């Protein structure tokens, strides 16, 4: 599904090597936590997968395609294989829950029939179908993150990339959101989540890839969030 082969990423303008000789493979349906201190290289990994930036050297394969060689004009089509969830939700404040999810489908050219079928379906998956007509400001933080999650799932991505998705949530709400992620993963979606949330990583017992100073220093199934990592 996703494979990094001898990946190096240097930001030459600031003289920073963000990733050095990164090698790992993530299979279909896996749930992987990316952990490490701030600036370790976690976000660089997710941006390379999405082709928000490109490698200095090495190869990245996504579903058999070398992402590093995809022409710029084809990157939007590549990203249709992915859903992305951020810490700060990034919802359209003047649109309802339904319209936020609908928007994600409209921009990829989904038909009205597809939208009418899929939006209620995906809102039901995240437990928010009864709040479809509400605006984001009428929702709690956890509910807003569920809308963001529904929007990311609307186009049935192969991969869901989450960047600190529980960072703005209290511990109880964070675990509720993680239960939703877990259910989505069980339905077959590959999940890659960058996080500092030690309690979540330790509780979930998923695969952990630890990054320190641009190096992959640990790759462990059922791993914990080590105490020496900055929180």
Structure description:
- There is one protein chain.
- The model is unreliable at 227-231 (pLDDT under 50).
- Strand 7 (159-163), helix 6 and strand 8 (190-194) form a beta-alpha-beta unit.
- This protein is globular.
- It is 32% helix and 27% strand.
- The chain is α/β, with parallel strands linked by helices and 231 residues long.
- The strands form two sheets. It has a six-stranded mixed β-sheet with strand order 6-7-8-3-9-10, with helices on both faces.
- Helix 4 (112-125) crosses helix 5.
- It contains seven helices and ten strands.
- The protein has helices spanning 42-50, 75-78, 97-106, 112-125, 141-153, 171-186, 198-204, and strands at 2-11, 16-26, 31-35, 57-62, 65-66, 82-86, 159-163, 190-194, 207-212, 215-221.
List the helices and strands and how they pair.
Blueprint lengths: L1 E10 L4 E11 L4 E5 L6 H9 L6 E6 L2 E2 L8 H4 L3 E5 L10 H10 L5 H14 L15 H13 L5 E5 L7 H16 L3 E5 L3 H7 L2 E6 L2 E7 L10
Parallel strand pairs: 3-8, 3-9, 6-7, 7-8
Antiparallel strand pairs: 1-2, 1-4, 4-5, 9-10
């Amino acid at each position: 599904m996703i494979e990094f082969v001898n990946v190096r990423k240097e930001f030459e303008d600031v003289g920073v090597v963000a990733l050095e000789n990164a090698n790992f493979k993530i299979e279909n349906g896996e749930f992987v936590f990316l952990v490490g201190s701030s600036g370790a290289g976690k976000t660089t990994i997710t941006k390379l997968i999405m082709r928000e930036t490109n490698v200095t050297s090495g190869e990245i394969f996504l579903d058999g395609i070398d992402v590093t060689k995809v022409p710029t004009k084809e990157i939007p089509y590549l990203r249709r294989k992915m859903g992305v969830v951020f810490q700060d939700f990034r919802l359209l404040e003047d649109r309802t829950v339904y319209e936020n999810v609908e928007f994600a489908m409209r921009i990829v050219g989904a038909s009205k029939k597809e939208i009418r079928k899929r939006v209620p379906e995906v809102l039901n998956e995240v437990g928010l179908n009864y709040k479809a007509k509400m605006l984001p400001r009428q929702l709690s933080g956890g509910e807003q993150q569920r809308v963001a999650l529904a929007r990311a799932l609307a186009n049935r991505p192969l991969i869901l990339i989450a960047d600190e998705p529980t960072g703005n949530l209290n511990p109880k709400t964070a675990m509720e959101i993680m239960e939703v992620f877990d259910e989505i993963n069980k339905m077959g979606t590959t999940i890659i989540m960058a996080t500092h949330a030690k309690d979540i990583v330790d509780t979930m017992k998923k695969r952990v890839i630890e990054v320190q100073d641009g190096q992959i220093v640990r790759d462990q199934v059922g791993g914990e969030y080590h105490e020496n990592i900055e929180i």
